[in-house]
## 1
Amino acid sequence: MSEPVRDTGGSSTLTDDTKSGDEVSAQTYDGMSLAELAKHYQLRPSAARPGMFAYGRQLWERRHFIMGFATARNVAMYTEARLGQLWQVLTPLLNAAVYYLIFGLILNTSRGVPKFLPFLITGIFIFNFTQRAFITTSRVITDSLPLIRALPFPRGCLPIGYVMIELQQLVMSMVILTAIVLATGQPLTWYWLLAIPALGLQSMFNAGMGLFLARLGAGADDFGQLMPFLVRTWMYTSGVMFSIETISSLKNHPTIVYLLQINPAAVYISLVRNSILLTQRQSWRGSAPYNNQLCVQYYKAAENTHSPTSQLLLSAHCHGPISIDQLWLWGVGWAVLALVVGYVFFWQAETRYGRG
Amino acid sequence: MVNPTVVVDDLHVVYKVYGAGGDKGTAATALMRVVKRQRRPSVREVHAIRGVSFVVNHGDAIGIIGRNGSGKSTLLQAIAGLLPPERGCVYTSGQAALLGVNAALLDDLTGERNIVLGCLAMGMSKQEVKDNYQSVVDFSGVDPAFINYPMRTYSTGMAQRLRFSIASAKSHEILMIDEALATGDANFRAKSHDKIMELRGEAGTVFLVAHNLAEVEASCNRVIWLEKGKIMREGEDVPAIIDAYLEATGGVPRKRDTVAENDHTS
């Protein structure tokens, strides 16, 4: 039996619509074609795609499943370890320890940023949320094929669930981050509350992109393989380990600095930094009246590795590529854009994910 | 009285299989394929269902028989809307559901969490999960002391009993039962057989895929014999079709079918 194998290759078939009902069937039943019969008794196609808004309603009805699925995955991740759930806290803590060792003790560099260590660890943790969400959602359909072929549920539950898994991990990381930031001498202020809407927007962005990437990854596994490299490149252009504005080679290219600063990862990282790090707010370019002399003084200080914080805070007197208010607008814009595009793009292929 | 609940109209189902072999699988051969602009031979599309049509009425119990790889499970998945049709269409009066939640469960989780997860995956609300939880535990017969242990620590029989209990916690309008679900010791087999009967009573329409032909003959009023993705014979004369099937397959039907529905045996 070799007949049923059609060698039509491995290209993505997720883009062509399934043809249904456009062929007149040969069989009749009580004088009606089968399609007419089904219509007469108000039967509906089993693989029919719900309407765009009905789909959103279905996802909302499955919210307990999404959260249950996310929690279950997180719990299952550490059951083999002797320390168990403690790893949810230990993993980010050890991550922070590694960066402290390299950047705090070995390199001991400020790179023109006042209080570099909390700046760095905030960047790492916030970027990690988006990074993990991107990598896991681009593989979610391939990884969950047995589940998709066994149970009916809106498939959007899967990428959203994966983003929720990472969000739960992020909450643990934020607890550690709070401790680190306070330990490095940053004060606890009302500004901290702004981290919540910032992370909310980032979660929306991740969920939208997760839906988008899940469909892309469903067509070709190669995409899932490529994703870690794309994301790592993105990390190096998003000001995770340095401040975008202090790159000396970009000093005379304000447009490039602006473009780097409005990329979604840099936006969300900056928003969280601005809410929990006082020194970041104080040193934000353009937050103080422009003063050429003080700005030049800052650039001199930034050249040295051991400049005092007070000198590095003078960057506030330089021209800034973007204000904090504008940053919030970009944050909202990216989140809404990703969510709308991702949702529609994923929904369009809803019935075809079972094909593999 | 005609009251169709499932109409299958010239259904064709195609799905992809990865790693089907065909080249040496080295990086060099893969590179040559890219250079020559050939497609990857190890990704194959299997045309599993090729033009199947039938109508099922309310109250019908349909037995589906056929050899390994004849497309029985694929047909059920297509009726449930899990695999999209390549051509043709399946119309149903409601959501058709396969009995089984194995794919949603995680062995690393405790039995308790798996019950909740499995029930949520089947579409129960939080309240329904709460209401059903105790009856699932009771039915499975899993020792209450074990319910807080990860499922991977369960014996095979115990895990199978729990999986069956979770899967059978919800009743469906169109129920599809694939293969022998009744497993475990003799006592549980009898219990699960009764449970399946109960679910079938609640369901308006039942599909049964089984290799136990006596079971099909005893409980189905219609039978569909699939062969290479097409209907060989179909009708209400169950014993005659089963006899013909037995004759065609050499008299002795296989006892077990495996998950690999599309291994090419013939």
Note: The two ends of chain A are 22 Å apart (CA to CA).
## 2
Amino acid sequence: MGDKRKYVIPGDVVTTGPFRPEQNVILDGNNIIATTIGISEIYDDSVRVIPLTGMYIPKIDDLVIAKVNSHTSLSWELDINSCYVGFLPAQDVFGRDFSAHADELSSKLKTGDLVAARIANFDRTRDPLVTISDRDLGQIDSGELVEISPSKVPRLIGKRGTMIQMIEMATDAAITIGQNGWVVISCESPEGLLKAKKAIQMVNEQAHIANLTDQVKEMLELKGES
Amino acid sequence: MASTSVIDELKRTQILELLEQGKRVDGRALDEVRELSIEINAIPKANGSARIKLGDTEVICGVKIQPDRPFPDTGDKGLLICTAELLPLSHPTVETGPPQPPVIELARVTDRGIRESHMIDVSQLVIEKDKSVIGVFADNVVVDYDGNLFDACSYAATMALLSSKTPTWNWVDEKPVLVEGEEIQLPIMTIPVSVTMAKIGNHIVVDPNGDEWACMDARVTITSDSDGNICALQKGGSDGFTLDEIVKCGETSVKVGAQIREKLKAAQQGGQ
Amino acid sequence: MGGRDATMVLLDKNGIRCDGRKVDEPRKIMIRAGGLKNADGSAYIEFGDNKILVGVFGPRDVHPKHMSNTDTGILRVRYHMEPFSVTERKNPAPSRREIEISKVIKEALEPAVMLEKFPRTAVDVFIEILQADGGTRCAALTAASVALADAGIPMRDMVAAIAAGKVADTVILDVNNEEDQAGQADMPIGYMPSAEKITLLQLDGVLTPEEYKKCVQVGVDGCKLVYELQKKALNDKYFGNKGD
């Protein structure tokens, strides 16, 4: 580990001096202190900690996999694997001419349905606004849902997508990764599906090891394992 | 419990589709129990204890044995009381506060399974007839939830009681007095084992995990003893079983129960 | 308090305590981060013969809504003893002692947890005492801190805890059950090591002003030892022993 990165736990002093505290650090006097378990990074004039655990906090433009919890006559409530609940207004799905009288929400999405969605708006004072009206978004009607820790999502994607592409090519699966840690795997073959699941779990459980990419590659290349 | 969390439709459909092909999501056969791990003497200061992991469901049972007053109409019998508590750290939907009906049912079914099998001969637990008897309390706490608490609590209580050591008391001057250094096994007459089966659509699966529990239509828990006799039964859930299904469940519970019983006995030997 | 066993020697002429320890020696401590599948964070601690499990959920929605706070998240702590955890079987219903300890632990954690980042939510800490042997609240607080970090809840600092005390007119570190029952003073202390703040402090017994000062100092030093074990527990789980 280079000298600009350090393993930290809450309360650890990352550095002292004139740095700008960014994610997961606070300024206490002259000290920059870590507030979660993670890897600290000092770059330019700011300091942050990349968390190794913790729940999903929505960010605008995040792609998430969501589950429909309930609905009123005007909107759906979505479980986005966070303490915040996603708010999907009916107009997003029915369009501008939505009429609470004529259009029944459960005809499009009902409780228990899975969707790929995007966080449209969020500040911490109210629940995030969610949309499914882009082309790559909408109801997911096939595939298996797997859950990983949201803090492991960057590792699963890999630098410029290298990790996830490697898994998809080796298993012939189509994998949609939500920033909220929910991942949907679609695969024709049950062996490919199981292998993809295994690879994803490996990343989730061993994100901290140095040669993870090689280890996952090795596992994927084993024939006939399930 | 998990019945209040929304199981996603995709998972429910998957479970049903696989069942149509005679398979389950975790690769088990329909009558196969999950991996069962048993640790006895998990709580050394209790008179007996066991920690059971049934898949990812985890239960700890601690046995406390102390002198007590007998019930008014059974002065020649000791006390045997089993309880079960669902701890809030076992699942995000568990609330603190007085126990809800499903947990009360769990406790009472666990208690009946042990009691009705006559696992412990309580007539041997008397210190002074009508005045003082030995009270045996087997308290189960659920520490992690992934379906089928009935069986996990049954195995934990059975193992804890099997491996318990009871002190001896003498009746002196109208009081029970502890005899130092005299600890013996409880009077064990049989080893009860419960087996829970869930009905999902038209299929019956043994030892449902958390996902299967959330989408089952009905369930039945059947306890059998070492002689292969059925001694306790509880049906639950909002659908029904056919006569044939219930008879088949009885046979399955005795068959699978015998396999589990061997594991419990092996664990008891291993601890000695 | 007060001598229950008049024959027990709490400190012999060689300065050895009833369980073989020296006056400044804590009991054997083992902490493990994680372990529960459903909780957002968890930890397990063995502190002498104490065995304690902690599970954390949150931040999460508060029900009923009127209990939530619009400006800041709230912390809820439940300290609970299993019926089989103590010598005489305990009734599962919460006792006044458990309720008081829950409150004291909550107030020891609040300075460390950054609740203001999550308005209208709650962080729940569930402490389960599986086996008790003196000093459960300190062991529980120590494990709770690890479980909160394991859950990724933002914290300014960890909180480590241990009890100092007095037996046979001598200040000791880490009071066990016999020393708590028959000794002269018991002082549980919870401490934030980076911020250097004492966030849990209680006293049971009689101390001269000198003894009082010594007790607090011995306790704080003891907390620093416990903190090293909290670090180790988190290192082992997250850094694969590559951390410092």
Note: The mean pLDDT of chain B is 93.
